[in-house]
Specification:
about 575 residues, alpha+beta, FAD/NAD(P)-binding domain, 7-stranded mixed sheet, about 35% helix
Length: about 575
């Protein structure tokens, strides 16, 4: 071993799955696992611990993360059986469904059910004014907010894709994320991570040894003995082997704000092989929670997220099966057909009081988890991986350094941990506010679950203060600190006004002098909407084409003809 090789910094990631392998692949690419002077990365995972796989939805940031890792988009789509996601379609969140309304899986509006759309596209700006105030003042008539300010709702309602086969990988006319099979995605990341230089070990952690300062000295395994590193990344899921069991960092629960603590997950088939694939998550509210319904190429991933304080598991399964109808049918012998038995998951929405302690960082479920609403789980893994790459302790942890150098190293590490924890802590708090927003402005009063969610005592003070202000003015950029936020003002606007929140701008109407321009923009969006629908392939057609042939750059004749 050369002197340079001996000086290489080392990362040990404990745990695989999406958290472990996404972190490993990203760090291997950005920290140069195969480069001279780069970082050695080892990942150890147990063969006996499976992937939870509830979070099959993602946030648009996943595209830049996959591109940074170097994964071809078509390869990702094929190997993860992924489809496109343009937002979330919410059903029955704002109002109690009509008494005679049957459970619905239909796309778009259905009689007896309230609905709204949270698209990934920002509200249209163009050359005119910001449209939200003018929408609030009636400039778009009775058109729902998302439909009035973006083309994406029309495109998604028509089961169209956000892009075409000739669009460059990870780029499109409309903003998008993905739905995918979590197990296949983790397998792809494992392959790519190893290609990028990650050392893969299969084994069982039986002890975490701490040093005199309380940092991790080594991780003992049954199969590989003691493993050491400069930085340990805990991706061991809810077990939290290092951050929780060894370092005893307390868990901060938000159960008093976000009530849901259980989920029943069930994979079901389409009713026919060529069934349309929705390009959004369908989130339907029920008496004590909500169902998710996402479309992959070959199946639907569904489930019911609910509060055990407001219902029991047996009733929850009834609700899920009633929603799914024949797709959740029992087997001929009275047992459940293969794959039709719901999987019960228990969780507590919350996070560790600190994510980075000494020389250990917790990522994924080990650091925290919120219910699947708005797909925050994988996005938080992305954020953690990006921040670890930026904050990586190239100066080491201090082992072997003497005197003043050792003290400086320790001080730098402690400062890094404080910065990381402050940023992640604020991000978690803001996510709690955004998720609670979906519940607390409801007008449903048909069950204790919805009444309790609207109780001001269950709303964080930070969100209560914002809602009080937003009753008189719409959300704006000054309400948000960019590095603390996952969801930008547009997302708050889509949820607020999709839920029917009232903002009274009449006292300040005189400030908004560009109503004619705004009406022109609203009319233009209504006119262009059908053209956008016609120019895009159906979602299933695009998925089938990309699986077969990948993305194909346009031919010179197409570019010359202006069809690009």
């Amino acid at each position: 071993m050369t002197a340079a090789e001996g000086a290489r910094r080392r990362i040990l990631i404990v745990g695989g799955g999406t958290a472990g392998w996404l972190t490993a692949a990203y760090l291997a690419r950005t920290l140069g696992a195969k480069e001279p002077g780069g970082v050695d990365i080892t990942l150890i995972e147990s063969k006996d611990i499976g992937i939870i796989g509830v979070g099959e939805g993602t946030f648009p940031t996943i595209r830049s993360t996959l591109a940074a890792i170097g994964i071809d988009e078509a390869r990702f789509l094929r190997e993860s059986t992924a489809t496109f996601k343009q937002g979330v379609h919410f059903v029955d969140w704002a109002e109690t469904p009509a008494p005679d309304a049957m459970p619905t899986q239909a796309l778009g509006a259905v009689a007896g059910h309230s609905h709204y759309f949270h698209p990934f596209n920002f509200p249209h700006q163009g050359n005119g004014p910001e449209l939200l105030p003018y929408w609030l003042l009636g400039g778009a008539g009775d058109v729902p907010f998302a439909e009035a300010v973006t083309l994406q709702k029309a495109v998604a309602d028509a089961c169209r894709a956000p892009k075409r086969p000739v669009d460059p990988p990870y780029h499109a006319p409309l903003n998008y994320a993905y739905h995918f099979d979590a197990n296949r995605f983790a397998a792809l990341l494992r392959t790519v991570g190893m290609e990028l230089g990650v050392r893969h070990l299969v084994g069982t952690v039986n002890r975490v040894v701490l040093d005199a300062a309380g940092s991790v000295a080594q991780v003992d395994t049954l199969e590989h003995g003691g493993l050491t590193a400069d930085l340990y990344v805990d991706c061991s899921g809810f077990r939290a082997e290092i951050i929780g069991r060894a370092l005893n960092v307390p868990f901060k629960s938000y159960q008093d704000v976000l009530f849901n603590d259980r989920a029943l997950a069930l994979q079901v088939p389409y009713d026919r092989p060529d069934a349309p694939i929705p390009s959004y998550t369908v989130a339907t509210a029920h008496e004590a929670g909500w169902t998710w319904d996402i479309g992959l190429n070959d199946r639907r991933g569904t489930g019911y997220v609910y509060s055990s304080r407001h219902t029991d598991d047996a009733r929850a399964e009834e609700v899920l099966r009633r929603y799914l109808g024949p797709a959740a049918a029992q087997g001929r012998d009275g047992g459940r057909d293969g794959g039709r038995e719901p999987r019960l998951l228990k969780f507590d929405s919350g996070c560790r009081a600190a994510q980075w302690v000494g020389n250990c960082v917790a990522v994924g479920l080990a650091g925290g988890f919120f219910e699947p609403l708005e797909s925050t789980g994988i996005m938080l893994i992305e954020v953690a991986a990006h921040m670890i790459a930026q904050f990586f302790p190239w100066g080491g942890i201090g082992g072997g350094a003497a005197g003043e150098d050792s003290a400086r190293t320790a001080a730098a590490m402690a400062a890094t941990a404080r910065t990381y924890n402050a940023l992640m802590g604020k991000r978690y708090e803001r996510i709690v506010d955004f998720l609670k927003l979906h519940y607390c402005v409801t007008r449903r009063t048909d069950s204790a679950y919805w009444r309790d969610n609207a109780d001001p005592a269950t709303i964080p003070e930070s969100l209560r203060d914002r809602l009080a202000q937003w009753a008189k003015r719409p959300p704006c950029r000054f309400d948000f600190v960019a590095d603390h936020e996952t969801f930008l003002p547009a997302s708050y606007q889509y949820v607020l006004y999709g839920m029917g929140f009232k903002t009274d701008l009449e006292p300040s109407r005189a400030l908004y002098r560009r109503m004619d321009e705004a009406r022109h923009e609203f009319r233009g969006l209504r006119t262009v909407g059908p053209q956008a629908v016609a120019s895009l392939p159906t979602h299933r057609a695009l998925v089938d084409e990309v699986y077969r042939n990948g993305f194909r750059p346009p031919q010179p004749a197409q570019v010359a003809g202006g069809r690009r």
